Amino acid sequence: MSATNRFTGLALRHSTLPILIVPLIAAGILVSVFGSQLIQDIFTYFCVALMMVFSVQMFMGNSGILSWTHVGFVGIGAYTAGILSTAPMVKGMGVPNMYPFLVELQIPVLPAILAGGLIAAAVAAVIGYPLMRLSDFAGVITLFATLIVIHVVMTQWDNVTNGPRTFFGVPDWTTLTAALIGAVVVILLAYWFRESALGLRLRATRDDRYAAAAIGINMVFVRYLTFVLSAGVAGVAGGFWAHYITSFSPKAFYMAEMFMLLSMLVIGGAGSISGAFTGTVVVTLAREALRQIEANINNAHVLSFEVFGLTEIVMAILMVLVLIWRPGGIVGGQEIRWPGFGRKGKDAAAEAETLAA
User: Can you tell me the distance from the alpha carbon of 288 to that of 169, in angstroms, rounded to the nearest whole number?
Assistant: First the structure.
């Protein structure tokens, strides 16, 4: 095979990245130059949501285990980054019971965000190994129970998180540009992981764990490494989110937000990078449209009662319909590649060849 053909084949194989990233950057530039403040805020949130969704996709999409825990890791990253970057005077006023050594701590925002990722990964490393031994419904239930534990700790540890009350005063650092750069880096990381040997082995355990074990793949170990890595990404995403929203409480990292992240993955397709990206676009646009509809109905007093929860209801119905009519999501578990879809079989064959090697 000539060098030209080899380069062409490589470019086509990895064409998913430019197909996703180039429009994302172009949209960011257009929104930054021509968009109103509302549109810029929506796009910034969309980029942060992309980071969260890809952290879940790295584990859930490749292992096949429904994870409820990752929004807890987002919360750990948010609180860590917020505590480390907020001015001592603000922390002293906002969290009067905070440990003195935490009040005096202050580092620049970016190292604080990275520290949030490291703390989230460390927590996942401590609790993850026994959890990764479980599969199917037992694995799902234990991960759900873990989220409850993390939430209770966040609501009760008022010496650190201010308990159920709002933690405020976090520096407003996450601009549209910062969120866009973070989203691009996370997409590259998620794609690298998917194409790596670790990602291939994890998907092999997802498709048939007994066959994977027969060729020497340690299912628990590959799940564990992915769980820790994805928790670190979720923690970093939480740091970006904290410095975008600037004030938050533990309820921001619980069922409602996890449901929204899962709806993005399910509707787009959890099994691929393209699906996670597509689902985030669809759900973000739908959610903003539904919020406007809900606000207009309430402001116009069309009904004798106030409409509340319209967004969640429509997202839930949409998720059910997708699961019934297209269980693989809109993208169907495939990657979007030039010159189009239909690469699933070739992808599977390439993965099988790599694993066999």
Answer: 26
